[in-house]
Amino acid sequence: MNKNVTSWSWSLLTLLILFALGTGLWIATKKIDYTWRWNRVPQYFVYLNEDAIVVPADARVEKVDVVGESANVTVLTEYDETLTYKVDADNVSVYQDETLFEGDTIGYIAEWRAGPLLVGLWTTLWLSAAASVFGLIIGLVTGLCRVSSNTTLRQLSVIYVELIRGTPLLVQIFIFYFFLGTVLDISRIVAGISALAIFAGAYVAEIIRAGIQSIPKGQMEAARSLGMNVPQAMIHIILPQAFKRTLPPLAGQFISLIKDSSLVSVIAITDLTKSGREVITSTFATFEIWFIVALLYLLLTLSLSQVIAWVERRLAVSD
Amino acid sequence: MIKTVDLKKIFTGRGTEVRAVDGVTTHIKSGEVVVVIGPSGSGKSTYLRCLNGLETLTDGHIMIDGIDLADKKTDLNKVRREVGMVFQQFNLFPHKTVLDNIILAQQVVRKRNRKEAEDKARQLLKKVGIADKESVYPGHLSGGQQQRVAIARALAMDPKIMLFDEPTSALDPEMVGEVLDVMKQLAREGMTMVVVTHEMGFAREVADRVIFMDHGKLVEEGTPEHFFTEPREERAKDFLRQVL
């Protein structure tokens, strides 16, 4: 009971500190005379797009037929063609027997569209997902080469890992886009995903290697003594156990990958970061947008850690 | 069944050379129970591990059912499925249930279907006396139960030979009996067994032959009566004075 009370009071202190920090920031922004325009933000997530429907030639409106939420407008053109257009019922701009000239608006079709922030979020999401999958495959293969008895495989994997870990990701992305992109004629998206996957693969390889080496030697011996060959023992015995052990560091690596994916904005891939910058150029809501962008990244990484935590719980049944 | 001819296993590392097994020649017949004893570091475990190719030979030959393990063309995996092994540390697969531990190699190596493998596994679990634990993970079993599962797992491959590497050394004393009972039953059924152990009682009671090793060499071999009552070699006498 007593312990409970102290725990609560400490939590209260935490809240107090966070509140104080927030207030401090707020006062600071007050001083620089920044006008917060949070109301401008939502339209960059979703917005209502109104498509104008126009007549292709001079015409006369024959009939306006309202069916539910939409209206069918039938017109007779100067070339004696009968054309029917469908527009929103409450957005009809013409009436019966009205004479229209070429390019006049008949009505509008309104629909909700994803704004740049949502599109950017989606791009970041699938870009990271693709890079993660390829990174995992590359890492798995490299990790296995790293523990192989073949010297060439071992040396190649060491060179790859050291090369990638020793150079900045930003430089790698530039090399992929400007050098490999030109030489092999690959698109910016492919270059971006490859750079991220190969970068992540090097780290995943080290994690996998450590995982494999952490499994007691007796496991491999038991599998071999039952007549399994090395690949069978790896697939059925070693890798499942290694995977379970390496899940937390792998999760960390993939969370890093989501964050590092923001760097592909330098080769003009419209990911979340680049979308954010584009929105800022049209709104000047610099502070708001960067906060939102950070929040969206946080949303992605937190969801991923939740998923991983769930998998970990599932795998813990044999403990 | 098993013939070893001038078997040598030499470990080299950091400039030192350890002659773990140093010229062992012996012949183990089908249905025979051979117990290998000796002080720790005498090379008895290494000798046993050589018999199913877990250690590569430095020199000499091991003939199992007429197949030479030293021959580079020999498919070791084929030999191993005929030679079961039980380890000191059990080495059960911790991510699989007891039943799956026993089924896995049957399916992967022997290509049996699931039903067939399950039937075999249940029958063996009954034999080692833990039929009620089939869906438990090894981590939840006692040492004695784990070792009995390990024996069942090895037996599921229908081996012609069973090797035991100090199967009771990692067990609490009160669990040694249950494992030894299973081994005794196997011996009675006519299984060819090579057992490295410190259980002198087991050696005396079950063994057809005792092999005494020291410093990688086969020092003395004979029936248990002979070995435990009137050993010829001085080193064997010393050892027996220590352990009995």
Automatic annotation (TrEMBL), chain A:
Membrane topology: Multi-pass membrane protein
Entries under PROSITE patterns matching the protein: ABC_TM1
Pfam families, alphabetized: BPD_transp_1 (PF00528)
Keywords assigned by UniProt, alphabetized: Amino-acid transport, Cell membrane, Membrane, Transmembrane, Transmembrane helix, Transport
Domain named ABC transmembrane type-1: residues: 121-308
Function description: Part of the binding-protein-dependent transport system for glutamine; probably responsible for the translocation of the substrate across the membrane.
The protein's name in its UniProt record: Putative glutamine transport system permease protein GlnP
TrEMBL record, chain B:
Superkingdom of source: Bacteria
GO molecular function, one term: ATP hydrolysis activity
UniProt record similarity statement: Belongs to the ABC transporter superfamily.
Protein name (database record): Polar amino acid transport system ATP-binding protein
Organism: Malonomonas rubra DSM 5091
Record's keyword terms, sorted: ATP-binding, Nucleotide-binding, Transport
InterPro entries assigned: AAA+_ATPase, ABC_ATPase_HisP-typ, ABC_transporter-like_ATP-bd, ABC_transporter-like_CS, MetN_ABC_transporter-like, P-loop_NTPase
Keyword Chloroplast: no
Pfam families from the UniProt entry: ABC_tran (PF00005)
PANTHER family given in the database record: AMINO ACID IMPORT ATP-BINDING PROTEIN (PTHR43166), PHOSPHONATES IMPORT ATP-BINDING PROTEIN PHNC (PTHR43166:SF4)
The keyword Signal is assigned to this record: no
Boundaries of every ABC transporter domain copy: 2-240
